[in-house]
Amino acid sequence: MKIAMIGVGAMGGATVQGLLQVPSVCPSDIIVSNPTTAKTDRFKAVGAHATTDNKEAAAKADVVCICVKPWLVETVFDEIRDVLRPKEQLLVIMAAGISPDQVKLWLPDTPPFFLVIPNIAIAQKQSMTFVVPVDATPEQTALVKGLFDEMGTALLTDYQHLAAGTTLASCGIAYAMRYIRAASEGGVELGFKADVSKEIVMQTLEGAVQLLRATGMHPEQAIDQVTTPGGLTIKGLNEMEHAGFTSAVIRGLKASTK
Ligand SMILES: NC(=O)C1=CN([C@@H]2O[C@H](COP(=O)(O)OP(=O)(O)OC[C@H]3O[C@@H](n4cnc5c(N)ncnc54)[C@H](OP(=O)(O)O)[C@@H]3O)[C@@H](O)[C@H]2O)C=CC1
Ligand SMILES: O=C(O)[C@@H]1CCC=N1
């Protein structure tokens, strides 16, 4: 199965990095297309086919992925529409805020398509990815979901939930990074060197995630196990809440989803 990635910036590039680690995908099965060739060189070096011609990339692929900024999706459609084979190919559109109706308006003779929103941890096969099938058969859907499941966890959903999913997971990884940065800076103020502080925070987060996964606990149940009455943790937590921690996170998520 040949997979074309049109646009290999932050998200497209991370996805190709993930694809290169999927056992069933050979580097020679991947075609990358991007105007700046410096971005495709690293994939060419490991055996992928690289081009600046979107038409060539789309013509050669069974699965055509488009990962350009949302306002450039129509331009890419205009470039590739003549070479698409609606009965043979699948289209994967990785661009925030693009609706199924918009795609059908821009590309009336479209192959079955998928709106797919991963996050940049796809490069480490640790993405939380949302997949919205449009006019696809169950087999086609299983194929695309299966591919993204190989690079983390893929959740089949509907278009109505895609914006919320994008916020929680794709933007969410930036929010998680900001927490890591904030806690690391706090650690430096408390006396650890920056790199040691970052490592402590990351291991603490990994432990938190694994604990919740292993026990199925609600986070607040786990918090109850840490907060000695009148102790250190509750003082810190309450101070964070006085500063608006939970409210700030929820307001941020809502602002991002608008
Ligand atoms: N970044 C993220 O975490 C996430 C991004 N997304 C979505 O992914 C899409 C891409 O975003 P992101 O990767 O961040 O953006 P980037 O700007 O990092 O990457 C976009 C890439 O598209 C290339 N490009 C521009 N025009 C064309 C064209 N006509 N044909 C082919 N390639 C082109 C650019 O190349 P050049 O630099 O040479 O112009 C660039 O490498 C967006 O629609 C975004 O909504 C979705 C989820 C998460
Ligand atoms: O910030 C953005 O618009 C893109 C979409 C999700 C993550 N990054």
What does it look like?
By secondary structure, the chain is of the alpha/beta class. It folds into 2 domains: 155 residues, 3-Layer(aba) Sandwich (Rossmann fold), CATH 3.40.50; 93 residues, ProC C-terminal domain-like fold (Orthogonal Bundle), CATH 1.10.3730. The chain has 11 helices and 8 strands. An 8-stranded mixed β-sheet has the order 3-2-1-4-5-6-7-8, with helices on both faces. It is elongated. The two termini are 37 Å apart. The mean pLDDT is 98. The site of NADPH dihydro-nicotinamide-adenine-dinucleotide phosphate has 27 residues, from helix 1 and helix 4. The site of (2S)-3,4-dihydro-2H-pyrrole-2-carboxylic acid has 4 residues, from helix 7.
- Output the CATH topology of the largest domain: Rossmann fold
Instruction: Count up the helices.
Output: 11
- Our estimate of the beta-strand percent is 5-15%
With strands numbered from the N-terminus, the spatial order across the biggest sheet is 3-2-1-4-5-6-7-8
Number of domain units: 2
Give the low-confidence spans: none
Summarize the main sheet: 8 strands, mixed
Could you report the average pLDDT, rounded to the nearest whole number?
Answer: 98
Estimate the global geometry from the Cα principal axes: elongated
Helix content: 40-55%
Ligand types: NADPH dihydro-nicotinamide-adenine-dinucleotide phosphate, (2S)-3,4-dihydro-2H-pyrrole-2-carboxylic acid
Alpha-carbon Rg, integer: 21 Å
CA-to-CA gap between the ends? 37 Å
Enzyme class: oxidoreductase
Pathway: Amino-acid biosynthesis; L-proline biosynthesis; L-proline from L-glutamate 5-semialdehyde: step 1/1
Domain Pyrroline-5-carboxylate reductase catalytic N-terminal: 2-93
Family: Belongs to the pyrroline-5-carboxylate reductase family.
